[in-house]
Amino acid sequence: MFKVKCWIDASEQQTKTMNALWELSFGGGARKCIGRWISWIEMSKVISELLRRYTVSLAHPDLEWKVVSRFFAQQKGLNVNYVPR
Hints:
The chain is 39% helix and 21% strand. It is an alpha+beta fold. The strands form two sheets. Strands 1-4 form a two-stranded antiparallel ribbon.
């Protein structure tokens, strides 16, 4: 689960480490994905358009959700409702 408190209360070294890992899904070093910036642009456009067109809410706000990291990160128990604006 994403906890904003760990970013707010993080030491300078912890913040450096977290900032280095945020882009890990695109690989690292000399073999980092060359299309990562295009992907970020596409995601920002899609997400902003979804938020512009729909009201988004949690289907079950009382349930806890978790992130399962295998080859891809997956959220379990994070169901949302999209209502056209």
